[in-house]
């Protein structure tokens, strides 16, 4: 494991947003923002106008706070843009839709380098570009005088392309539980960064720029997924939301989960071994990889990228998550996971 | 003028968002949020789904920072919710559209009273309810550890109802310039609050809860408005955006403006007289009333609520704003206005 190189931008007063001013910042940021295929009116007016051919629009928003959701010394500006977009694009995918446009709100200290904001804009644009989406509007304001950190608020719009939205509430006993995407990599990368290291590169990169399986969302909807959510807080936590909203038990199969997430042996085990951690702790409780979790009818043909990791059962005493039939809390305890997922306001 | 009563909520640790937790906060806030007529999927899933019958969706976002855009001792939580919604609803109206839904991002210190957030939610809901809109989703996160203030990010979606969006770039020489709504009232209210007073109530209320003429936006579009924007930064500043985007001169008629904004004599003059200010300074440069400014073909029949306040002229040497034919900077100087409008990052 090697020490990280510093990522904090050098402070050049002439490059600060205070000196460049709101409209200068907006012009520079827009130059990095690309064009949304669905935009009828793009940035620069009172509002943007985005085509919604389906007659409906999917909308979701996420707020990222410096010092809580990212650190400028652990992630480049481009990384933070990628990560902020990914959190929203994954939410849109989890409804069975594809992102068409983003709008971005930004509160930043007046001494923030404009080049840093350009980096965030580049990251947002690059994460969206493969699906033809782009930032179509935003608002950039100065933080409160006593606040040193950036707050980034991203809202994504999405198109269902005629599909019914896949809710969290549609799982039924007898169905199968399946996963698309990675679990635990972001948590492993965070554990590495927290200890002052920057490798293995694969897990650190996964923490800085998650790679959600966006196309797996609409594909799951087309294959008849009955319920779906993205795994942003941790598998047990997010499976719990799905279980409660559907009134069922989600029973995760530990062998299937290990096969899906820990085989072949790779950097996750390498980091876990170096840090004396059970990698299953990260698989069960690590957030921010933005895998997709869905339930399907038992005879559904799973689309490419989806793997069965459990079964939906009748709730018994109450809805919730089990691991190999046991309460999830016991399984989390056994592998040394502190909690099921992120605790906000902790 | 009377001293304001304190509006800062009493701190009850058991009511803090830290103790209530993210999901408790969300549940309490949603209980105040109403239902959007256009929502097919409301709050509580990965994303909301909003009907867009027009096949397009209008989208705009605004960020409000405590200490810059609002103060908890000057405005109640409900006021702040109203104001945050109004800024976005006015942007949607300025395109010729009607708001259908909001999503809200909120970063707040863990000791923020949950009752304060419920108040913000009530204000947002009440401002949207008359047009059938409501909050359909959001994200509530803890501020950075060193930040004492709330950051509120609101994104509005709107429906054009088959109209062409009214851009800022469509004004043409020979057209008329018209105004709907009030100017200067919010600035007068802010001047009162800054001096430690809370009356005249009319201007303080206008600062706390602007009353944009939402219906005037779609009505202007139907009447053939060629360009439109909302006046959020100040009349001269926002007319300047319209002038530059259209490549024209916006020539404001001071007599028509006085007739529209200062007759009959009312609280604006009362405050101006008490503070030794020329009320025209607030009319020309005061922001946040969210009046609508539009240009129309010369023979257009203006809809209810619209008043002619000037003319569009060929740009001459360069596009910009004039007042009675003179450069706007001179007119601002004459009435003692410090600047054309808000300067961000100042």
Automatic annotation (TrEMBL), chains A, B:
<protein>
    <recommendedName>
        <fullName>Thiamine-monophosphate kinase</fullName>
        <ecNumber>2.7.4.16</ecNumber>
    </recommendedName>
</protein>
<keyword id="KW-0460">Magnesium</keyword>
<dbReference type="InterPro" id="IPR036676">
    <property type="entry name" value="PurM-like_C_sf"/>
</dbReference>
<dbReference type="InterPro" id="IPR006283">
    <property type="entry name" value="ThiL-like"/>
</dbReference>
<feature type="binding site">
    <location>
        <position position="168"/>
    </location>
    <ligand>
        <name>ATP</name>
    </ligand>
</feature>
<feature type="binding site">
    <location>
        <position position="91"/>
    </location>
    <ligand>
        <name>Mg(2+) 3</name>
    </ligand>
</feature>
<comment type="pathway">
    <text>Cofactor biosynthesis; thiamine diphosphate biosynthesis; thiamine diphosphate from thiamine phosphate: step 1/1.</text>
</comment>
<comment type="similarity">
    <text>Belongs to the thiamine-monophosphate kinase family.</text>
</comment>
<dbReference type="InterPro" id="IPR016188">
    <property type="entry name" value="PurM-like_N"/>
</dbReference>
<feature type="binding site">
    <location>
        <position position="91"/>
    </location>
    <ligand>
        <name>Mg(2+) 2</name>
    </ligand>
</feature>
<feature type="binding site">
    <location>
        <position position="69"/>
    </location>
    <ligand>
        <name>substrate</name>
    </ligand>
</feature>
<comment type="function">
    <text>Catalyzes the ATP-dependent phosphorylation of thiamine-monophosphate (TMP) to form thiamine-pyrophosphate (TPP), the active form of vitamin B1.</text>
</comment>
<feature type="binding site">
    <location>
        <position position="288"/>
    </location>
    <ligand>
        <name>substrate</name>
    </ligand>
</feature>
<dbReference type="GO" id="GO:0009030">
    <property type="term" value="F:thiamine-phosphate kinase activity"/>
</dbReference>
<feature type="binding site">
    <location>
        <position position="46"/>
    </location>
    <ligand>
        <name>Mg(2+) 3</name>
    </ligand>
</feature>
<dbReference type="GO" id="GO:0009229">
    <property type="term" value="P:thiamine diphosphate biosynthetic process"/>
</dbReference>
<dbReference type="Pfam" id="PF00586">
    <property type="entry name" value="AIRS"/>
</dbReference>
<feature type="binding site">
    <location>
        <position position="232"/>
    </location>
    <ligand>
        <name>ATP</name>
    </ligand>
</feature>
<dbReference type="GO" id="GO:0005524">
    <property type="term" value="F:ATP binding"/>
</dbReference>
<feature type="binding site">
    <location>
        <position position="91"/>
    </location>
    <ligand>
        <name>Mg(2+) 4</name>
    </ligand>
</feature>
<keyword id="KW-0067">ATP-binding</keyword>
<keyword id="KW-0479">Metal-binding</keyword>
<feature type="binding site">
    <location>
        <begin position="138"/>
        <end position="139"/>
    </location>
    <ligand>
        <name>ATP</name>
    </ligand>
</feature>
<dbReference type="GO" id="GO:0009228">
    <property type="term" value="P:thiamine biosynthetic process"/>
</dbReference>
<feature type="binding site">
    <location>
        <position position="230"/>
    </location>
    <ligand>
        <name>Mg(2+) 3</name>
    </ligand>
</feature>
<dbReference type="InterPro" id="IPR036921">
    <property type="entry name" value="PurM-like_N_sf"/>
</dbReference>
<feature type="binding site">
    <location>
        <position position="139"/>
    </location>
    <ligand>
        <name>Mg(2+) 1</name>
    </ligand>
</feature>
<feature type="binding site">
    <location>
        <position position="62"/>
    </location>
    <ligand>
        <name>Mg(2+) 1</name>
    </ligand>
</feature>
<keyword id="KW-0784">Thiamine biosynthesis</keyword>
<dbReference type="GO" id="GO:0000287">
    <property type="term" value="F:magnesium ion binding"/>
</dbReference>
<keyword id="KW-0547">Nucleotide-binding</keyword>
<feature type="binding site">
    <location>
        <position position="233"/>
    </location>
    <ligand>
        <name>Mg(2+) 5</name>
    </ligand>
</feature>
<feature type="binding site">
    <location>
        <position position="61"/>
    </location>
    <ligand>
        <name>Mg(2+) 1</name>
    </ligand>
</feature>
<feature type="binding site">
    <location>
        <position position="46"/>
    </location>
    <ligand>
        <name>Mg(2+) 4</name>
    </ligand>
</feature>
<feature type="binding site">
    <location>
        <position position="60"/>
    </location>
    <ligand>
        <name>Mg(2+) 4</name>
    </ligand>
</feature>
<keyword id="KW-0418">Kinase</keyword>
<feature type="domain" description="PurM-like N-terminal">
    <location>
        <begin position="44"/>
        <end position="158"/>
    </location>
</feature>
<keyword id="KW-0808">Transferase</keyword>
<feature type="binding site">
    <location>
        <position position="62"/>
    </location>
    <ligand>
        <name>Mg(2+) 2</name>
    </ligand>
</feature>
């Amino acid at each position: 494991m090697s020490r990280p190189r510093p990522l904090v931008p050098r402070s050049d007063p002439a490059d600060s947003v205070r000196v460049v001013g709101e409209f200068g910042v907006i012009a520079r940021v827009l130059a990095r923002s690309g064009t949304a295929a669905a935009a009828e009116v793009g940035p620069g007016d009172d509002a943007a106008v985005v085509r919604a051919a389906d007659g409906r629009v999917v909308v979701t928003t996420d707020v990222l706070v410096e010092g809580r959701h990212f650190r400028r010394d652990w992630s480049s500006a481009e990384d933070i843009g990628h990560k902020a977009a990914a959190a929203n694009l994954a939410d849109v995918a989890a409804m069975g839709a594809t992102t068409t446009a983003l709008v971005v709100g930004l509160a930043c200290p007046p001494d923030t380098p404009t080049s840093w904001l350009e980096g965030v804009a580049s990251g947002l644009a690059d994460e969206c570009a493969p699906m033809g989406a782009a930032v179509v509007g935003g608002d950039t304001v100065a933080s409160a005088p006593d606040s040193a950190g950036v707050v980034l608020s991203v809202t994504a719009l999405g198109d269902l392309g005629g599909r019914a939205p896949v809710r969290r509430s549609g799982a039924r006993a007898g169905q199968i539980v399946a996963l698309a995407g990675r679990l635990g990599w972001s948590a492993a990368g965070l554990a590495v960064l927290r200890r002052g290291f920057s490798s293995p590169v694969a897990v650190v990169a996964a923490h800085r720029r998650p790679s959600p399986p966006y196309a797996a969302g609409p594909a799951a909807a087309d294959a008849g997924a009955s319920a779906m959510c993205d795994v942003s807080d941790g598998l047990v936590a997010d499976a719990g939301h799905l279980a409660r909203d559907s009134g069922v038990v989600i029973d995760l199969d530990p062998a299937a989960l290990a096969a899906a997430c820990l085989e072949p042996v790779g950097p996750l085990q390498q980091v876990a071994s170096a840090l004396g951690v059970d990698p299953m702790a990260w698989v069960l409780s690590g957030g921010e990889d933005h895998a997709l979790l869905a339930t399907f009818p038992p005879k559904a043909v799973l689309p490419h990228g989806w793997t069965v990791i459990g079964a939906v059962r009748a709730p018994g005493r109450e809805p919730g998550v089990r691991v190999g039939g046991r309460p999830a809390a016991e399984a989390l305890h056994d592998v040394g996971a502190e909690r099921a997922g992120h605790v906000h306001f902790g």
